[in-house]
Amino acid sequence: MTTTSAEDLLGLAAELDAHAPLAGTRDRFVLPEGIVYLDGNSLGALPKAVPPAVADVVEHQWGQRLIRSWNEVDWWGAQTRVGDAVGRLVGAAPGQVVVTDSTSVNLFKAIVGAARLRPGRSVLLTDPDSFPTDLFMAQAAARMAGLEVRLATPAESAGAIRALGPSLAVAAYSQVDYRTGEKWDLAALTEAAHGVGALACWDLCHSAGAMVVDLDASGADLAVGCGYKYLNGGPGAPAYLYVAARHLGDFDQPLTGWQGHARPFAMETTYEPAPGITRARVGTPPLLSLLGLEAALTAYDGVTAEQLRAQSLSLTGTFLEALGALGVDLPPATPRQEERRGSQVSLRHPEAFAVVQALIARGVIGDFREPDIVRLGFAPLYVTHVDAVTAATALRDVLAGRKHERDEFRSRGAVT
Amino acid sequence: MTTTSAEDLLGLAAELDAHAPLAGTRDRFVLPEGIVYLDGNSLGALPKAVPPAVADVVEHQWGQRLIRSWNEVDWWGAQTRVGDAVGRLVGAAPGQVVVTDSTSVNLFKAIVGAARLRPGRSVLLTDPDSFPTDLFMAQAAARMAGLEVRLATPAESAGAIRALGPSLAVAAYSQVDYRTGEKWDLAALTEAAHGVGALACWDLCHSAGAMVVDLDASGADLAVGCGYKYLNGGPGAPAYLYVAARHLGDFDQPLTGWQGHARPFAMETTYEPAPGITRARVGTPPLLSLLGLEAALTAYDGVTAEQLRAQSLSLTGTFLEALGALGVDLPPATPRQEERRGSQVSLRHPEAFAVVQALIARGVIGDFREPDIVRLGFAPLYVTHVDAVTAATALRDVLAGRKHERDEFRSRGAVT
Prior knowledge:
The structure is a homodimer. Chain A has helices at 6-19, 50-62, 69-72, 78-89, 103-117, 132-145, 154-164, 186-195, 215-218, 245-248, 287-296, 305-325, 352-361, 385-415; strands at 29-30, 36-37, 46-47, 97-99, 123-126, 148-151, 168-174, 199-203, 222-225, 240-243, 344-348, 364-365, 367-369, 373-377. By secondary structure, chain A is of the alpha/beta class. The longest helix of chain A has 31 residues, at 385-415. The two termini of chain A are 36 Å apart. The model of chain A has no long low-confidence stretch (mean pLDDT 95).
């Protein structure tokens, strides 16, 4: 295998960075010195807009204005206002997204709500390789809503949906697999579900903010996602729930907290859902975290989903090419075809945990996922092509070091 | 009616403040100039410990250390660590309280969990005068858990519990009525529920942090409460859930998110609850808000629940006495007997909304509750006796002004 020098690759990467359409957005983030951060798909980096915004919420809105801020700065409208800002990133027209609760709680609301929109249908179809909370909440929702959970991978889903036919209530899938980074066809799977009269519910945790997510145009029915990965809302930032406008009038969500009521301050004793997506609100939202997310989303100002996708593919492509050029020969779990690739590259290694630790020791932060995955995320707003090549070089060195250690160990073993 | 001058009353109040055992804790808060803040039972004031703590979470823990903070500063353990800090204020030994989600979501978990602890029992008993979300979530939980909701006020509850007997699964009540400020007997109602083999679930939103709440000693089974009223955790701070240790092993909560799993990072496909209260966690918590609450709770350092209760009764007592001395003759909705009084005074007035607005215009912030309640909360950590007298004086002036306006209006009406 011919290899290229790391210096040459870094030079080419610097060229790409200089001409990338999103090059300027990195300046919107605080990034620690000397770190290549490839874990923005687990916790996004800190946008510069956040610290002053959160300080204002704490010191002025809360500290000085106290209870008056509910009206003065419209804390009351924050969940739907920030929802619309998220909507812009996931192809949702205003009035269909609310920021509230965690992804897990929103999944419960979405799946039970879907079952109630499709009474008489008994099956929830989902992916056995889902992120665990998706499976657990699917089981929890199914248990309470009287559904049966059936499993089929996205690749098997079209056949499974046809076979289930009119018994299928809802198909719940992730657009991008959290582990392999494989991107699935949201529009096609949605269409297959609609073909048998069922609904499609999407988890966007690993796609929103890094690619084109076209909920309205794809006809998706429901979707959820978190605020703290590519959306950079900070640790545990509240999650969001999308309900397509055509379902909102009948959306009967199971967690009927007072903030979802039509007249919350009338203090009525029976529940009447608010019109529109407001009915998906539950309790009082954590405003420091929610308004931190609102400030964070300004890092996307002026950026289109198409630009994000182009930058993301350029970054993951550069990384994959650099691995090849540097002679790093690890089997990728992420598809090489662009249309099937999310915004991460996952590589398999039998000692993946140790490899990730060694990368971190060299300043390249990614993460390990069971059982054998080195997972590297490429957040298009702030990761650079130079970062991608630096990470590939570090990985080459880590693997060479591990090989050297193994050889040392074997040769010492032979002596004693 | 004999009246005393406001000056005399203020002098006496200043004396009380100078000798109050909790006088020093007001310095732990930021309070805006010129404001008497009697709405800490809706949104607590800002503790001075919070701004630097939140700035550290945002700028250092998130911004510089990024994903590493989950382990380095134990973000992972925050929900149970802060839970134990709340536990100290509600008479709960460590390991029984978790801070997570909203009060509404925790009520859902508690009531469904209670139903599953008492299979074969069909009734949920609750208060028709509950805060709306308590009623709505009771209805939501009952609908999904197959329970029937029956209503009885706390005063009627002992008879209702006896009549329901073995059909009662759980009695869900608030320790203090959010509207009238009446304090109910947590231990007696709990004992009545236990008398028929049922469980007692308590909403502590309007009691925790302002009085003695003795969950363990009273034998309470489950409890919930918010973090943003007397606990001062900031707008929408996460709520908490208490499950008595004896129930934890069998507590089968309905929202089985990944953070409640026994091994969250093993990425297993079937749910196995973590031991202990950790199983009541659901999704990733909003850490800016959660760690803000943790810092806020340090305002309670060195303060006992008995001191809080003594100060609270002294403040509400001073306010009620000042009203009498100033000749303000509004019917209180709050009981005069100390053992039945929460940490607020609610007064009835046919134009209560306008009265509250006029008080706010004079710098005394309380709130209006439907249909005719002027509600004034006395947070014992930072409200002073001088505040109490100032508020009573302002109320006297507002009512006199309104009477004057009415007389003016009538006399002008007579002229035209």
